[in-house]
Amino acid sequence: MQRRRIWLVSMKKTINNSHSGWGFSDRKWIVPFFASVLVSITLSMAAVFGLYSSSYTSDELQFDVISVAQSEESSGYFVESDIKTVFDHRIGVSKVEAPRLAYLISGTKGDSQRMMRTLQAVYHPRNQYVLHMDLEAPPRERLDLSMSVKNDLTFREVDNVRVMAQSNLVTYKGPTMIACTLQAIAVLLKESLVWDWFINLSASDYPLMTQDDILHVFSNLSRNLNFLEHTELVGWKLNQRAKTIVIDPALYLSRKSDLAMTTQRRSIPTSFKLFTGSAWVVLTRSFVEYCIWGWDNLPRTMLMYYTNFVSSPEGYFHTVMCNTEEFRHTAIGHDLHFIAWDNPPKQHPVSLTMKDFRKMVNSSAPFARKFAKNDPVLDKIDKELLGRTNRFAHGAWCVGSSEDGADPCSVRGNDTVFKPGPGAKRLQWLMGELLSDGFRSKQCSTENSAVGAKIAEKS
């Protein structure tokens, strides 16, 4: 016990001596230590005050990234709001000049000549064009289409017509049609920084007025208007279409076949409303950019949902638009097409012929479908509505001589000058009806398609 007490006393002295030694022998570190602390505090305070003062001084460095200092109107530090600002700015810039249209013309086996005829009928140097021929068409026909575009002197000089090198299988009423359309939109966005509306046509579509007529009328429209026939999916159609699950074989196989129906059923979605309408649309650049970028993820969510949905081309854009606050008030419930339906049950369009010519004109629609290949009514439209004597429909940009059967469009003039004709008056009347308060109040509702039908009957 005595030895243990002596050992504890000895250890205590040793510890005290070691602490005392550290306190006095290493005292030279105290000054540098406090100096470094003082420097750190000074730098931190300078950074903080410099950060907050930058929002009040005009001669500070400007950064390419999003500023941390937000304005009072800002909703927070989110990249989505910055992207939206960029798109809004771009839309404002485009309003200072005449509009430009971007067309997708699609076809399948045996449609190459029809696609070229439709292309020439809607051609204008201001516009952009993408042609897609289904993978079902043989390679030789797709090559012939590409060579026809490449060998056209006007197309080559203006460089505004492109044939998609990657052909896709497209199933009627399947999601592959949406996938092909989105791919064409992406190509148009990549190739041209300036255009205002996207229009999809098929080889069986044809214009009922010149591009000068359309561009003249669209010059006086807001660049934020989207034209797509739409109505909310309700009642028995909602149960029949929304609960059915289909599979598009073109997503997995190399040969086209009909949609496959599954025995499984799914629930009706509750986080968004479903809309349906025509597959033929005239959409603003800002909206299709939103569908491609999808910065709030709704377009991608809808794309996945409609992958197994019957007639997805008749619902995808409609549902995205009507469930997005930014765009739902821009939806005009008309597809700008004249279409005659089978009666009953009014599910499939019938081929238009001479007997439908007057109805087409009276509809005031700029486009019509569907037409059989080389139907005589197309020649009548060329002669009486388009003033087409050579490759292209009449336009003020064609300033060459037409003597001795020469092509006046072989010499190009100012493409911002339009010479509207009777078609412009018809389209102006239609726009007046579509933009009336009574029609606009039915946007993204169950009543919209009925109002559109009344306009068609009135015309």
Describe the structure.
The protein contains 18 helices and 14 strands. By secondary structure, the protein is of the alpha/beta class. It has one domain: Spore Coat Polysaccharide Biosynthesis Protein SpsA, Chain A (Alpha-Beta Complex). The strands form five sheets. Strands 3-2-1-4-11 form a five-stranded mixed beta sheet, with helices on both faces. Strands 5-14-13 form a three-stranded mixed beta sheet, covered by helices on one side. The protein has a two-stranded parallel sheet with strand order 6-12. β1 (101-107), α4 and β2 form a beta-alpha-beta unit. The chain is globular. It holds the Pfam family Branch.
Entry keywords:
globular, 459 residues, alpha/beta, Spore Coat Polysaccharide Biosynthesis Protein SpsA, Chain A, three-stranded mixed sheet, five-stranded mixed sheet
Strand content: 5-15%
Find the CATH topology: Spore Coat Polysaccharide Biosynthesis Protein SpsA, Chain A
Uncertain regions spanning at least 5 consecutive residues: 17-26, 46-80, 85-94
Q: Can you tell me the overall shape?
A: globular
Strands in their spatial order, largest beta sheet? 3-2-1-4-11
Q: How many structural domains in the coordinates? A: 1
Bin the helical content.
40-55%
Main location: membrane
Membrane topology: Single-pass type II membrane protein
Subcellular location: Membrane
GO molecular function, one term: glucuronosyltransferase activity
